[in-house]
Amino acid sequence: MYKEHEALRYRRFNVDALKEEVKRSTGGLDVVRISKWAEGRSNKVFRVQLSDGREVIARIPMPLAGPPHVVTASEVATMSFLRNRLGLTQVPNIISWSSQASKTAVGAEFIIMDLAGGIELADVWDKLTINQKARVVSEWVKFETKVIHAFERGGYGSLYFRQDVPSDVARDVFLPNSSQPDSDYVLGPSVSQQGYWKDECIVPEDLIPQHGPWPDVLSYLKSITIQERYWIEKMAKRPTRKRPHPSIELVRKVAQYFIPSDERLLRPTMTLRDSHMYNIFISEEALARGDIEITSVIDWQHTTILPLYLAADAPRFIGYDTPKPGENEAEFTKEKKFLMAVYHASYADTGADLAWATALSVGVPRPTPQVMPFAARTCWHAGYVDLKKELIRVSLDWQKIAPAVECPLSSEGYTEQDLAQVRKDQAMWYAAHARRVAIEEEIGLRGDKSVTPDCFRAAVKTDQRLFDAWKAGLDLQELGNVNPAEIWPIGRDSLKST
Q1: How confident is the model at residue 161 (pLDDT cuts 50, 70, 90)?
Q2: What CATH superfamily is the domain 1-115?
């Protein structure tokens, strides 16, 4: 496993050629200094200082990011569209790029862009007053509203320049109040990492997923189950996992009944999925005078245009925020609810987008139309229990869903006892997941499942200790021919040999 992870993070490229490309694309300015600024899950990011004092960003995608041409070409087109079509100057300007490694001396795909201006929201969030945080939410809504209203029709997929997608694949996109398709941009294959390739495995050459673009919602929903089944059949190593769970096939039987009838909820919608505090920058000067101004919004990689009801979500800097160590949880929860209310009201009470506000499901559980597609496309990583529970609930409640139609799941014979059992299974699954997270944290794995070089030896020792303790408590006879190391979540042998 760890050798595979290492391969997914390794990218060979010509540093001198990259410096020359920076020089060429910035009008002949010399590169004074280039240094690695960051390395996340998908990219190596370099900060480049030029001879006139200007700084730019050079970014190289790693194999982990996904198919290199489509990922790079789509991100550049998306950023260009946001900046040039929608006038969102907070999106950094692209200076130079290539989505074809074989066509550049750099030897890898790359994007060179202006450095994001301002300071990361994460650096100041805890210092802001509640009123300032509410102002951040309001300023975010002003930005986001333009993004989610970018398209009127055309289908679903990811955005590209017209010349980067074969004409027999591309779908036209239509801006609001326009009867003509956009001349420069089209829909092409989805670059979303949520189901269309897996960020923890190398994609085999013969795996051609149902990656879009899609003309309608039902086509998209069906593609989820086709892709998930295909992936499991191709990539599962243990024979017991090679047969996709029946739940995946059952989704296809009921998918059409969970497409909203309100056409507003089906509008092709683009959002920034990673709208967390590290991707949003605010003006330091404005903050000094007590004001809030968003200066930059970054990381548009893997952006996909989906039906509004599946795209709607609160920004991650609110919805995914967690209390800091020692922080009063009651106060944190109170503040979070307040900011969520501000966000929801910014769409609902002002009339900015009632459909978006409706689809947010603030304060209530997400409905089946939103839960089922997510559960179906995460079976490989998250198991089948969430999907199975949703299907059982659908079967038991069918008379409330489509009373004039015979339940497509009736042959499964689901009962209340089945629902009770799957809830127990779900609790066990989440307990096991929590245990895995605890193991990863104790070993020292970061969010991308890697460790820093200076922590590697300690991580190996901790992993060995935890593995030995876990193995000692196993009933090896019950495991049969299964090697305990093969089901240990961290990948024992590979970690030792890395």
Answers
A1: very high
A2: Phosphorylase Kinase; domain 1 (3.30.200.20)
